[in-house]
Amino acid sequence: xxxxxxxxxxxxxxxxxxxxxxxxxxxxxxxxxGQEGPVVWALFRDATGLVDKSRVxxxxxxxxxxxxxxxxxxxxxxxxxMRPDVELWSNAVIYKKSSSLLGEYFIEIDPGxxxxxxxxxxxxxxxxxxxxxxxxxxxxxAVTTGDILYQVNETLPIVRDILRDVxxxxxxxxxxxxxxxxxxxxxxxxxxxxxxxxxxxxxQDVRSITSGQSxxxxxxxxxxxxEVTEGLRDLVGKGSSxxxxxxxxxxxxxxxxxxxxxxxxxxxxxxxxxTGDIRKGKGTVGRLLVDDAIVNNVExxxxxxxxxxxxxxxxxxxxxxxxxxxxxSNDFKNAIxxxxxxxxxxxxxxxxxxxxxxxxTFSRSVTTTDDPSKPxxxxxxxxxxxxxxKISFQFAKRLFLDPKWxxxxxxxxxxxxxxxxxxxxxxxxxxxxxxxxxxxxxTNIWPRLRIYSTVQFYRNMYVLAGVDDVINxxxxxxxxxxxxxxxVGGQIMFNDEDLxxxxxxxxxxxxxxx
Length: 514
What we know:
Layout: H1 2-33, E1 39-44, E2 55-58, E3 61-72, E4 75-82, E5 93-98, E6 105-110, E7 115-117, E8 124-126, E9 138-141, H2 145-171, H3 173-209, H4 216-223, H5 225-279, H6 283-290, H7 292-313, E10 316-326, E11 331-343, E12 346-354, E13 359-368, E14 377-386, E15 389-402, E16 406-415, E17 418-427, E18 432-439, E19 448-458, E20 461-468, E21 485-494, H8 496-513
Parallel strand pairs: 2-6, 5-9
Antiparallel strand pairs: 1-4, 2-3, 3-4, 5-6, 7-8, 10-11, 10-21, 11-12, 12-15, 13-14, 15-16, 16-17, 17-18, 18-19, 19-20, 20-21
Helix pairs in contact: 2-7, 3-5, 4-5
């Protein structure tokens, strides 16, 4: 009889939860859909992650949902039902975006503009409004991490070959040509310097010979013409021998220079041949400079990596400290909450709780005996009640029925170390919140139902009050088995910006104290 009573209670509780969930779903579905508007469609190469009723939004606001998906040729045709007050132009763009690391996708739409520049002429042209049944031509699909890794694996061998060819080129013919040109220039520079020195000496000798003489020295000069002529003859003879010697050296240097020029011409011919092959797209370097596919792959990889990193940068962390005083138990309950919010309509809630209701552990031992005067088996049940920290980990989905005045949040997961579900109703821009939690189906006769509300009275500070264990009317029967109890408390919430300010002020205060 006791087993049947427990089964009946569990069944009634499950039926109540199903009815409440159905009513909430019908209310939410009605609020989200509203009046049906025009239906437009677009073609996707990959519709993975897009399901019926998935949200469609503009600038982060939900303006429609996916109405139908079907195959059209090798593409997926996705139909979108819009709100009647939303206008889409012929230059609208549909983006398939990833909403989280769990593989969920949604559709973001750029509605376009009444006018846009013509890509060919640059003049402004008028765009037409899309009607029900029209196609959105421009579609940009999100790239997965697997696609990025595949493109990186395709590009890395090409880059490796390019680096190997460049290294081989710089260590081979180009280095030899540079070395030969350097040696030839050094040798020819020495020869030319020696030649110029001899020519300068000859010029000085001619200047000393042809320098003007005074009128008084003319007769002496005529008388000594023979002597001067003989001296000049001797001087010219010496100069001729020096010129011959210099000419031989110059001829040798010119031969060396001619050989160096031939080597340089041969090297330039090789370089011209190599540049011709590169211009035709031959070899790894030629493919890099001529093939546009490699450049497009690199640009695509950069864009995909930027979009992936942008998704991580939008993660927001919210930390809360909560303390509650239970009036009937005359004890305090403290909790630390961490909320990881990847986007405005979804977050993960983690709590570490010190609960005065404690934790109950049940164990059973069975003892057998051969003594005929005693029962064959003896069963002993042991219930241990300890005060320990409890953990909550819940996934929350927010529905912005009216972003300014009414927001509904559905939660499910682990609540205070037991399975549980709940929902929140935020009013007046989240200044007033009503919360309902159902969990702990084993401790008392009925599940533990908690209803409370929070009011924001100054920035990040809240006051709260509520009723815990509403259904169980049994008075306290021992540690860990309390019935209904009332409580009041306070809460402080910090987001990323608040934590940065606190750390900056705290760090400055600690530095000043030191």
